C-alpha cells in the first residue's frame, strides 16, 4: 500500500544571524492510508516544526517529504497551497474558526476556497456537521459554541475536502479530559469510516496511547515507542 505521507532524513536548523538552532535530526516517517500516528514529545522537542514541514508550511534544511507520490519539497507555494486545500486537513489546539462566520460557513470555507459552488459547499458542510453531531448548531457563530463544539466544527472543517491525511497539533490540548476524550472518539470514528490518516502531535500520553502507533520525539530525534 502506498504511503500517504512519507519523509526521509529530514533535518531542520533555524538560522538567525550568528545563531543556529538545530531542531530536527534525520527524521524519517511513513504514514499508511487510514493510519493514526501519534508523535509524542515534550515542549520544545520539535513537534510543531515537524508538522509544519510535513504540511509543506516550512522547508527542511535537509531531506525530502512526499505526499503520496508528490515530492512536497519540490513544489512551489501555489502548488503547496492547492495541495493543502484539497488533500490535507488541519486541526489546531485553538480551533482557528473565523468568528464572523457561522459553523456551517466555517466548514464550507475550504470548499469555497477550492472553487466549489456555494450550494454544493453548503450541502457538504451540512453532512459533515451532522457527522460530528452538530446538526442543531449549524447557524451558530463560534462564540456561541462550547469549546468542545468548536473543536468538533474544526474537525468537520478539516475533513470536508475528504483529505487523505489530517495533521493535528494538540487537538485536545485546550479541552478538559472528558471533552478531549469525546474529540478523540470522533477522530477515531471518522478515521475508521473514511480511511483518513491522522498524524497527531501531542504531549498528552493518554491521547497518544489510543492511536495505532506512537512515535516519540526528543531533542529533534524521532524514535519508536515500545
Ligand atoms: N523560527 C524559529 N527560529 C529559531 N528557533 C525556533 C524557531 N521555531 C522554533 N524554534 C525552536 O525549535 C525548537 C522546537 O520548537 P517546536 O515549536 O517545534 O517545539 P514543540 O515540540 O512543538 O513545542 P511545544 O509543545 O511547546 O509547542 C524550540 O526550541 C524552539 O525554540
UniProtKB/TrEMBL annotation:
GO cellular component terms attached to this protein's record: plasma membrane
Top enzyme class: translocase
Location of the protein in the cell: Cell inner membrane
Superkingdom of this protein's organism: Bacteria
Source species: Alteromonas australica
Family under the similarity heading: Belongs to the ABC transporter superfamily. Lipoprotein translocase (TC 3.A.1.125) family.
Protein name according to UniProt: Lipoprotein-releasing system ATP-binding protein LolD
UniProt topology in membrane: Peripheral membrane protein
An example molecular function term from Gene Ontology annotations: transmembrane transporter activity
CDD domains hit by this protein: ABC_MJ0796_LolCDE_FtsE (cd03255)
EC number, UniProt record: 7.6.2.-
Gene: lolD
A Pfam family this chain is assigned to: ABC_tran
Amino acid at each position: 500500500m502506498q504511503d500517504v505521507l512519507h519523509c526521509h532524513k529530514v533535518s531542520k536548523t533555524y538560522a538567525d544571524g550568528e545563531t543556529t538552532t538545530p531542531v530536527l535530526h534525520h527524521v524519517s516517517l511513513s504514514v499508511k492510508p487510514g493510519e493514526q500516528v501519534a508523535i509524542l514529545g515534550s515542549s520544545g522537542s520539535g513537534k510543531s516544526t515537524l508538522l509544519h514541514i510535513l504540511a509543506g508550511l516550512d522547508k527542511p534544511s535537509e531531506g525530502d517529504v512526499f505526499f503520496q507520490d508528490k515530492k512536497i519539497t519540490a513544489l512551489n507555494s501555489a502548488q503547496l497551497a492547492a495541495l493543502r486545500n484539497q488533500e490535507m486537513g488541519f486541526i489546531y489546539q485553538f480551533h482557528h474558526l473565523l468568528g464572523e462566520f457561522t459553523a456551517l460557513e466555517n466548514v464550507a470555507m475550504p470548499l469555497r476556497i477550492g472553487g466549489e459552488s456555494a450550494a454544493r459547499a453548503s450541502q457538504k458542510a451540512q453532512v459533515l456537521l451532522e457527522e460530528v453531531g452538530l446538526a442543531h448548531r449549524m447557524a451558530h457563530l463560534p462564540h456561541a459554541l462550547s469549546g468542545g463544539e468548536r473543536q468538533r466544527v474544526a474537525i468537520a472543517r478539516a475533513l470536508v475536502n475528504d483529505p487523505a491525511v489530517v495533521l493535528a497539533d494538540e487537538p485536545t490540548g485546550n479541552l478538559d479530559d472528558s471533552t478531549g476524550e469525546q474529540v478523540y472518539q470522533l477522530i477515531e470514528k471518522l478515521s475508521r469510516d473514511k480511511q483518513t490518516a491522522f498524524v497527531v502531535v501531542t504531549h498528552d500520553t493518554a491521547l497518544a496511547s489510543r492511536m495505532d502507533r506512537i512515535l516519540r520525539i526528543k531533542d529533534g530525534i524521532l524514535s519508536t515507542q515500545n
